[in-house]
What we know:
Layout: E1 20-24, E2 30-34, E3 39-40, H1 47-57, H2 61-66, E4 74-79, H3 85-97, E5 104-110, H4 116-123, H5 130-138, E6 146-153, E7 156-162, H6 165-170, E8 176-181, H7 195-203, E9 205-213, H8 218-227, E10 229-235, E11 242-248, E12 273-277, H9 281-291, E13 296-301, E14 315-317, H10 327-346, E15 353-354, E16 358-361, H11 365-377, E17 386-388, H12 390-397, E18 405-408, E19 412-414, H13 416-424, E20 429-433, E21 436-442, E22 445-450, E23 455-458, E24 460-463, E25 481-491, E26 502-504, E27 508-509, E28 516-520, E29 524-525, H14 534-547, H15 551-557, E30 568-576, E31 583-588, H16 590-596, E32 615-623, H17 629-644, H18 653-659, H19 663-671
Helix pairs in contact: 1-3, 4-5, 7-8, 9-13, 9-17, 10-17, 10-18
Amino acid sequence: MPSPADSTLPPLAGLDTxxxxxxxxxxxxxxxxxxxxxxxxxxxxDGRAETEHVFIQANRLPERFAxxxxxxxxxxxxxxxxxxxxVLCAWACFMEHAPPGVRLHxxxxxxxxxxxxxxxxxxxxxxxxxxxxxxxxxxxPEAVAGVHRLWLDARVILDLHFGDSTQMLNQLxxxxxxxxxxxxxxxxxxxxxxxELFAAMAAASRPGASAATxxxxxxxxxxxxxxxxxxxxxxxxxxxxxxxxxxLTEPPVDExxxxxxxxxxxxxxxxxxxxxIGAGLAGTSVAHALARRGVAVTxxxxxxxxxxxxxxxxxxxxxxxAAETNAQSRCYLAGxxxxxxxLETLDPEQTLWRECGVLQRAAGEREARRQRxxxxxxxxxxxxxxxxxxxxxxxxxxxxxxxxxxxxPRAGWVDPAALCRRLxxxxxxxxxxxxxxxxxxxxxxxxxxxSDGDGLVADQVVIAAASLAxxxxxxxxxxxxxxxxxxxxxxxxxxxxxxxxxxxxGGYVSPPRDGIxxxxxxxxxxxxxxxxxxxxxxxxxxxxxRTLPGYLAALRDAGVDLDPARLHGRTAVRAASxxxxxYAGPLPDAAAWKHDxxxxxxxxxxxxxxxxxxxxxxxxxxxxxxxRGLASAPLCAELIASRVCDEPLPLPRELVDHLHPGRRLIAxxxxxxxx
Length: 675
């Protein structure tokens, strides 16, 4: 598997936003102009009319949308999001012409994303798009390299791939039906219009994919032809006499996983009905993601939603990122940003969560050095994470602190139990009680047997049962560690001081909710007993004092009862993987992998076998989210739902492979420890 040094992903960093000046176009509208590229974002004559001519009509989208009846979405790819005008026009065309029930998925790259205020100003030019523009602006992500998924509508997804177009398309896990080949003119932006871009487009295309572009430059014609597109000239827009349209007639051989054939995804299969085992955060987020795509879901849990580790009063939406960039940190940061947008869309009134911020204290010089290395190596926007000194940290936390730390201003806390119940109540999700004891492949699907002798048949199955996820014959090989954790609840008096941010060190403490302070949690690997413990309450109090020094004395002075014997709390069992990264993806046929890739044990550098990884058809897993499930489970749910529904994935391919449960099999084969 690739090491961080082998990664082709962009640095984990913020991106530059463009410097603009604003000029009147020929219709007296103010239009943005790029100072760096000395070029316009859309035609001075009529930007919307240009988009309709060059991209919508030239790709024959009205008629293709009208005749689209596939269960998968129609996929548009775009090089250069710019102001989003092309996306808004495509969205409007889809809503006008597409039959009910079909879906649209747009993938758009952007190296220099506009600042939100500039984007709002640019889109204000088009009053007819006021409502959809607001939907876009409400979800506009921070300018961080990577993939950002936005829900424009119940049937329309936009994936913004922030970074170099070629680099991002080479990492795209998905296939495109129609391309908007946009961007500043080749003479203004030659770095984009390179042969590698057209090759990446072809590799990410379905056979017969169309493409359209405003330019007829020779570099574009040569690049399209070399990549397998047959192009032709057609009348251009406005003063441009000609433009190009193209069709992929010679699809390239897919070599995206030639060095890791085990991660070749399974072929799509029917998914009219999916059973999800487990109604914690992992399971309910998968059920929600599938149901919003029109899939009928049976959500199964013996004790109901959030009965296990997802049932706490408050959970921290936080991550702890490595000082040096690695795939795990990339996944967790993407997950944190995704969860933040997802929660905002799901619950804009913040009845289930609070954007109070999270402060990760540097409780010691070693941690302070690690945090400084992280900040030096990851120039991220201050709205995502920033370093703060002790005075600033104390001001944010609402309690004086002797050390600073990392502050995540847009993170916070979530009521995971209420969230799970909300997700389980999604239309299209049927909640069923019971304990699944076995899974058996049947013709075209899976048969589930229950402990009471009852049964159920589904097209596909997602296992999301936390520490019990490897209880089935197909998943028994998967290494999972049970971890007992206990949180404590403390009733505060009116005079008691109250933290204003979630503060994390060895444990965490949240701002009180309804007068109850939640803090913890203990960490007991390989322990499954969930009986509350006085000793664990005492340990949580000690950790609270280390997190907020002097706080316990202030609570005593305020008349708060700190006797561990009288504290309330909650104990549950979480699940973790050996490498502390979740498992999310198709479940491998372990015996087949050990046979097909046995040679890796002798020489991991030898030529990789050509055999694609064999999986249990239609069997998936989302597990091992540990204590950071709020930052990982929703994004992993989108990953699984996207794969099930044959749409582009919300992460770069390298990170999709990092989350694949088969990574453990390959690592064990290479080390010679596979059983």
